[in-house]
Design goal:
This protein is mainly α. It has six helices and no strands.
């Protein structure tokens, strides 16, 4: 005779492979590197800091990501190519150089978390192709809102 708790049956537990208990929870999907609200974040950042960087410099930062984006955008595999991860490392180096040349650029880059994102993206095997595509779209949003806010302020100054 066995002692059972109320409501317990002799039936195997369906969620566990052995049928003897609850299944182990599945590993949670990795959090995306770029937050889902990256467009709103880019807008707020540029609204407050558009004057820290010139149009040319921010477009050059986007251009650095463009080649990697174009290579990865054509692929269908989930993981980044090692070559892409290496190009991202070179982007970090170039970004560090630009930040060293101009403290205002450094302030914007740190506020935009670009070093953090690039470091995570350059780790082979830990990020996905989608993470890179999201990063590129985030960079596009930064450029777009920089243009929007710098042009709107220029228009206001000319109207005065």
């Amino acid at each position: 005779m066995s002692i059972r708790n109320e409501g317990e049956s002799d039936m195997p537990k369906p969620n566990h492979p052995s049928g003897k208990g609850p299944a182990k929870p599945k590993a949670a999907a990795a959090e995306p590197i770029i937050p889902e609200n990256y467009v709103d974040f880019a807008e707020q950042l540029m609204k407050e800091n558009y004057s820290l960087i010139t149009k040319t410099k921010i477009q050059n930062l986007l251009r650095l990501a463009c080649d990697v984006y174009n290579n990865e955008n054509r692929r269908t595999e989930e993981r980044l190519l090692k070559e892409s991860a290496n190009q991202i490392k070179l982007m970090r180096i170039r970004l560090a150089y630009e930040c060293g040349r101009d403290p205002k650029v450094r302030q914007l880059v740190e506020g935009a978390n670009l070093f953090e994102y690039l470091e995570k993206l350059s780790s082979v095997g830990t990020c996905t192709r989608q993470d890179l595509l999201d990063f590129y779209h985030y960079m596009e949003a930064l450029v777009a809102f920089h243009r929007y806010y710098s042009e709107s302020k220029t228009g206001e100054e000319n109207a005065s």
